[in-house]
């Protein structure tokens, strides 16, 4: 199913993407005004990005939104340039999946262009100046997951269910994104609290090289906790070393090959759900762009925490592919329209927040007929 989505998106969306960005258009007869929205992703071609793009394009078809895409995230200058380019292109809003430590600068740029901005995926409230920039008229809010708690629970399960005692940590260098730092921090805490031992940490921009070093130097390790791009960087070195079934492994935002990795017994946990929080963030952004910005009970820009969906078996992962990352989106437009002010006079922030916070695989299956 993922391969079909990737092919379709490649034809419909990505054909026009340049090396650092691109766009899509919406032919819409709904009578709604057309808005142009910029989206910042760290990659435009992997399954994680394709799933997110597919979800918001689905919304764009109904809401008359044209999306522009740009690569940003780990490179602060690229992210700032992306926002500036979106403003110059006439975008009305920005969805930023990588707020990092420069959100105050991005909000200032958005103010210059009278352009709204919402964050999803990586929380922005970790910024030291969040209390200041979150009061901006053009900051719409944030939708995020608890990466610390999810990582803690995965590592604790590795210990209590499988008896893991020794660990290696794998991912990007710390200090680039709150999300990645929280994953590593949660793993460290779970290891310490449950009597485990960290043998080595491979936190590097060269993720594949770091994985190879971990496996070659510490083949006796019980588990590798990986915070990013596991399938593309850790899976093959494990297979090559003949250790695929001997070392526990998790992944976030699984890429192509995760289903096979589960079937082979190489992958034990997969974390998914970013496309769902981006859909909720798009509702917040649309309401602001249409003059109906949502605020919480205290009159502040919303901060909505959602749940990840964690697969612990091939069967779990197949259900995620069917109901969340497949053709059937985690939220249907008739569900989301109830929280878009121009489409429903009963739209409320409390209702949208409740919908977002109830997100889980069981919730999606119940809402969509299973």
If you had to describe this structure to a student in words, what would you say it looks like?
By secondary structure, the chain is an alpha/beta fold. Helix content is 44%, strand content 18%. The strands form two sheets. Strands 1-3-2-4-5-6-12 form a seven-stranded mixed beta sheet, with helices on both faces. Helix 3 packs parallel to helix 4. The radius of gyration is 20 Å and the shape is globular. The protein starts with a helix and ends with a helix. Mean pLDDT is 91; it is low at 1-20.
Shape: globular
List low-confidence stretches.
1-20
**Percent in helix:** 40-55%
Order of helices and strands: HEEHEHEHEHEHEHEHEHEHEHEEHHHH
Helical/strand content category: alpha/beta
Arrangement of strands in the largest sheet: 1-3-2-4-5-6-12
Largest sheet: 7 strands, mixed
The residue-averaged pLDDT reads 91
Number of helical stretches of at least 4 residues:
15
The end-to-end span amounts to: 19 Å
Q: What is the number of E strands? A: 13
Q: What fraction strand? A: 15-25%
If you compute it from the alpha carbons, what radius of gyration comes out, rounded to the nearest whole angstrom? 20 Å
Summarize the structure.
The protein has 370 residues and is an alpha/beta fold.
Labels describing this entry:
seven-stranded mixed β-sheet, disordered N terminus, 15 helices, six-stranded mixed β-sheet, alpha/beta
Topology:
Layout lengths: L1 H11 L8 E3 L11 E7 L5 H17 L1 E7 L4 H13 L4 E4 L6 H11 L2 E6 L8 H4 L5 E7 L1 H16 L3 E6 L6 H16 L3 E7 L3 H11 L5 E4 L3 H11 L7 E5 L5 H6 L5 E4 L1 H16 L13 E4 L2 E3 L2 H10 L9 H4 L12 H9 L3 H7 L3
Parallel strand pairs: 2-3, 2-4, 4-5, 5-6, 6-12, 7-8, 7-9, 9-10, 10-11
Antiparallel strand pairs: 1-3, 11-13
Helix pairs in contact: 1-2, 2-11, 3-4, 6-7, 8-9
